[in-house]
Amino acid sequence: MTRTVLISGASIAGPALAFWLHRRGMRPVVVERAPTVRGGGYPIDVRATAVEVVERMDLLPALRAAHIDMRRTTFVDTRGRPIARITPDEFTGSPEGRDAELPRGDLAAMLHERTRDDVEYLFEDSITAIDQDADGVHVTFRNAPPRTVDLVVGADGLHSGVRALAFGPEEEFRHDLGFAFAGFSADGRRGLDREVVVHNTPGRMAGWSAVRGQAGLIGVLAFATPPGFTVDPRDVAGQRDALAQAFADGDWEVPGLVAAMRSADDFFFDTVSQIRMPSWTAGRVALVGDAAYAPALLSGQGTSLALVGAYVLAGELATAGGDHRAAFAAYERALRPFVERNQQLATSGGATLIPRTRTSLWLRNRVLAALPHLGPAKRLLAGRVDEAARAFRLPAYAPADGPVVA
Ligand SMILES: Cc1cc2nc3c(=O)[nH]c(=O)nc-3n(C[C@H](O)[C@H](O)[C@H](O)COP(=O)(O)OP(=O)(O)OC[C@H]3O[C@@H](n4cnc5c(N)ncnc54)[C@H](O)[C@@H]3O)c2cc1C
């Protein structure tokens, strides 16, 4: 039976996997580069099958309590006058009250809290080398002494270090969808409550998000990127400069957004990208969540795929009784159609959120303005997300799922 599984990354996929491995009798260890679980991040969605995973973790009440219950998104013109108003279910087609939306950092903290008494966490550290043979994986770290473990799992996101060490350079697997996105905290509420306000110019999107329970706002800046545009994850000052340059002549409330972006301490910026790989496993190393199959934020499904992927990977490892080859093959077989279906959601979304030309922006605004009047037809337009989010039947693995009875 596999005993020790070293997981890189303590955001969503990492702690969720650690939870399920521990529940199924294995010993997970999590290594995270940051000094603590990272806060911040734009609100993320937990939908359909992923809600079921959270329920089986006994975290559904906490998830429901953290739901920010947004009322609407308003698209405004340069002077702040509404062009169109959309409710969340008109975006996703999911029945009200079933899915949850919450700040990414809150979900990460929730998962960490649920696992920290049972799981060893190594913060402010990362894996520097992976050397595997028939007996195990020999791992070296930036700070901690070397260890030999049975398996290594990369849950370290779009720019996964484990993927680079065990599968090859990021460029082989990353597909940029032609946009970059920034999210950051800002002071003040501007009279907004449980709503998003968005202003577009061709190729650019700027907005505020007023989240329930937060004193300030979340600012959003996103733009269509020129060919070959990349983000250096280590160069935060360079990221802020690139954004300020992209919005240099911005109207509406863009100058205030740029100023807030400059001073925010939870600034997040990245290209809108997918990870597509022919295989998510190599020998004793596997990937889960964004590291393996980032669907891009346009799909709104990154967090749900991470939660479902973690559940399935741990379940298959337990079912295979230590045979990681059989477990990894079953993990890929079970999850790949679900992943591919959800990745398809993102490929056309950018043109809707950030139209590149004046004509396409005009057309988009007309469609949005008409949406509330379309009756049942709007469900046909929006139902794609909900259908994709439900397109996987969660297997039952032993020992039985559900709340642990002490
Ligand atoms: C700070 C932050 C803010 C985010 N904000 C947004 C957002 O606004 N909108 C959005 O759609 N998505 C955002 N995301 C991505 C979103 O969380 C993921 O798409 C999704 O939740 C899947 O999660 P994941 O656990 O697979 O990957 P991620 O959430 O990306 O987590 C990866 C984790 O691995 C850690 N890590 C990275 N490299 C290493 C390494 N070499 N060694 C050790 N640890 C490492 C990171 O610090 C992070 O904690 C954000 C992620 C982070 C970390």
List keywords for this structure.
406 residues, alpha/beta, 14 helices, 18 strands, globular, disordered C terminus
What small molecules accompany the polymer chains? flavin-adenine dinucleotide
Model regions low in confidence, pLDDT < 50 over at least 5 residues: 402-406
Q: Residue-averaged pLDDT, rounded? A: 91
Query: How many β-strand stretches?
Result: 18
Distance between the termini: 25 Å
Q: Report the helical percentage.
A: 25-40%
Cross-sheet strand order for the largest sheet? 5-4-13-14-15-12-16
Main beta sheet, described?
A: 7 strands, mixed
Give the number of helices. 14
Radius of gyration: 21 Å
CATH fold type of the domain at 4-68 and 93-173 and 274-349: FAD/NAD(P)-binding domain
CATH architecture type of the domain at 4-68 and 93-173 and 274-349: 3-Layer(bba) Sandwich
Q: What is the global morphology?
A: globular
**Helix/strand/pairing class, anyone?**
alpha/beta
Strand content: 15-25%
CATH homology-level superfamily of the domain at 4-68 and 93-173 and 274-349: FAD/NAD(P)-binding domain
- Please give the CATH class of the domain at 4-68 and 93-173 and 274-349: Alpha Beta
